[in-house]
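Progress against Task 2.4 (sequence-to-structure conversion) is shown through the following example record, which the project officer requested during the mid-term review.
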Amino acid sequence: MTEHAQILEMGNIEGAQATLVRWRAAVATGRVDNVMALYASDAILVPTLSNEIIVTQDGRRNYFEFFLSDGGPTCTVDREELRINHKNGTVAIGGIYTFCFRRSAGEESIPARFLFNFEEIDARWLITGHHSSRCV
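Structure tokens generated for the chain above:
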């Protein structure tokens, strides 16, 4: 791999990882618009607390309004693995994270598996695919 290609690859990895960090911070704010801003308009969402596959902006908004209805949970990444698609310059990050919800009955922790796909669109790293499911 050339030095130029290595620099581009590191930029892709850093862009995707920074978007994942922003996503976790946006979720913690509890503000749906903050979360929505990180998704491509045609992103696929297979969410943690739903059996639906969501492919529209309205669908993602409805899901995150539900998901964040008790305020923003904290999200801790417990383990992550990364893969870059060298041909397309996209990045996948998968792993395990834990959401901690503050409920009136006390805290509820939900560990889940995740897989995010990221792509640079109009000079911004956005989520193009997001699958999350509770750990069993």
